[in-house]
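Hello Y.,

Per our agreement to keep a running log of every chain we model this quarter, I'm adding this entry. I've kept the format consistent with earlier entries: sequence first, then predicted structure.
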Amino acid sequence: MASLLYSLLPYHPFKALYVFLVALSISLRAPFWLLYLIPRFLRQHPSWTLRQSFMIKLVSVASHHASLVRQHPHWSLLPGAEKERYERISPSQKDLYRGVLNDREIKPVEVGGTWYPTVYNPTDAHRKAVILHLHGGAFVVGDGRQSDLGHGAALLTSHTNYHVFGLQYRISSNPGCRFPAALQDAVTAYHSLLSRGIPASSIILSGDSAGANLVIALLRYITDHPDVLPKPKAALLWCPWVDPAACLQPYACSRNRNAGTDFLQDVFGEWGVHAYAPAPLLDARAPYISPVDHPFPCKGVPLWVQFGEVEILADSIVRFAEGMRGVEGNEVEVHEDKGAPHDIFLLGSLLGFQETTEKMARAMGEWVRGKMGD
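Predicted structure for the entry above:
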């Protein structure tokens, strides 16, 4: 009976009623959560402030219920609030999409993206490079637009002084957008930057959470097909979701040693992996989907791998980084943020981790400038 009710939640009027009841429930319980967390010894982590503890609790509960109703952004290629900063990109020639990208059902399509802080101008001597950023969201939420990526893009632009292009790739919560749709879109966007005359040596790939997974997949694709695309200058991996297949196991998040200090929920990861790599059509353990135990050579592309000390993905990220370091020629820099949960790149301001986020971004900026020779 319970499974039948849950299956109805993504559809109206059940969805609207459920959202209303959840919002009412949270508004009634939130003051009690706040009171409960006032004593420091009752907080999820001893170093956290009252705001941080409360926001982690609030986002955790909200994320759980949003996942149950499959709440995701409406797909649109219209400019919206981004206006002239939003750009549409057409797919390239068919030969660009080989191997895993040559799918019988999923084909390259027109996509869009947002420039930060302004539209790219090749004559702008103050912004010499471009960061192609792929947003997070378990492959089922997010769109790379101002309301989604604004905080993260500001970190990148302010600490590197480069342009950022936030790609709105196809998310798998929409029909016909399973793997390899998002990877096709990432290839389209990267090739588009190259076609504008931006050299690969002036392009840095970046991604948070599922977007970092996608960056890894793009690097693997470039490695597997060296005659298709040149290697970028470097890659920034923010809390990379390197093991989506783990979410196929029951209670993968809630049984994790860091479950009490993170906001990630079982239902969110399950939704993501089932939508992105639906079985039996796809194997979620495949290298392009769960790269955690599938290191590969990316000589010439130094990797910045960041993660939060108390996030659920911490152990898998360390395992991935160690595996990549073990490949001859690879250069991997690991940055651990003490006391931080998942993806403060995206949510640091919302969750109250501004100071930690700024320190993280400054370290990234120094690393990038060293690699770019600035």
